[in-house]
């Protein structure tokens, strides 16, 4: 079996907040294989962003305590020296956030930022790097790429800036690409164009991708595997077919509840996650037992309230990519009686 690009084990993040310590990520373990796309879904506040920021050392040490292990091509990101981590970001791991301004330098032209990135990680002269930069901007759908190279971030619209950030991330051909709601603000055509580019990069370079999104149409289209987060935990994961077609956790079923048919978007519009009644628990005060207990429509006896269900394999344990869920109700998608 090929070695994973990323191997996360028991990742935990505690943040210091005015309301006391917040357990935002609570024992997350998963792998991303070469060329594989893992979609991470869950309501706002489930710890998706914090979990990936922690991987790249982007949480301020004075507020965040991070533990666990995160091997990127065998090297632990969580114990890496800051200098090494800076080298790794880019060619090792690229990240695209929802807000492009967090990744662009406002005082440098787009061209300079893109060309510097291309030259820093490869042996190319300035003219060739400029051509490559213009090509990349064209590939992410920026009109008039040559002119865009000489412009500053504030001279572009939000959507254009986001495409620049994506071009910068792709320019390094990273081993791991993390996209955190990266295409959410872009229109469907541009989004499709960017997904095509990412898939091309994956085929050429074997890039592993973590794609955080609330857009289930995108998940169905690009993910090999899906990881459902709730209360800083993985409550369900498995192949895209297992999770979307045979969801086992009541929370996943809730998120998918309002979906008519994933394969057939209505009027070209793909659905988002459904609304689950109630709100997620604050990370400063997580339930002791099952994290979904207070909102679970099929919760059972005292066990749900007091004992935390482990993430256990359901279905065939022999499957290469097992389907796992953290719930005491282990019946199939149609079932749901808690034990
Ligand atoms: N800098 C911070 N200080 C305190 N709490 C934070 C900070 N960043 C995120 N949180 C809290 O951590 C939890 C998870 O946030 P986040 O990872 O952004 O969720 P998601 O990306 O799934 O929407 C939320 O409860 C959020 O309020
Ligand atoms: S363990 Fe109990 S409360 Fe939690 S999801 Fe399963 S049935 Fe619901
Ligand atoms: Mg987020």
Name the features.
globular, Rossmann fold, binds adenosine-5'-diphosphate, 339 residues, alpha/beta, binds magnesium ion, disordered C terminus, 12 strands, binds iron/sulfur cluster, single chain
Topology:
Layout: E1 6-17, E2 20-32, E3 37-41, H1 48-55, E4 64-72, E5 75-76, H2 82-88, E6 93-96, H3 110-120, H4 126-139, H5 145-149, H6 158-171, E7 176-180, H7 188-205, E8 208-212, H8 216-222, E9 225-230, E10 233-239, H9 240-245, H10 250-256, H11 302-306, E11 312-314, E12 323-325
Parallel strand pairs: 3-8, 3-9, 6-7, 7-8
Antiparallel strand pairs: 1-2, 1-4, 4-5, 9-10, 10-12, 11-12
Helix pairs in contact: 3-4, 3-6, 4-6
Bound molecules: adenosine-5'-diphosphate (ADP), iron/sulfur cluster and magnesium ion.
Low-confidence stretches: 258-266, 332-339
Multimeric status of the protein: single chain
What Rg, in angstroms, do the CA atoms define? 21 Å
The hetero molecules present are: adenosine-5'-diphosphate, iron/sulfur cluster, magnesium ion
What portion of the residues fall into strands of 2 or more residues?
15-25%
> What's the story with the biggest beta sheet?
8 strands, mixed
Estimate the global geometry from the Cα principal axes.
globular
CATH superfamily of the domain at 6-92 and 172-246: P-loop containing nucleotide triphosphate hydrolases
CATH topology of the domain at 6-92 and 172-246: Rossmann fold
Number of strands: 12
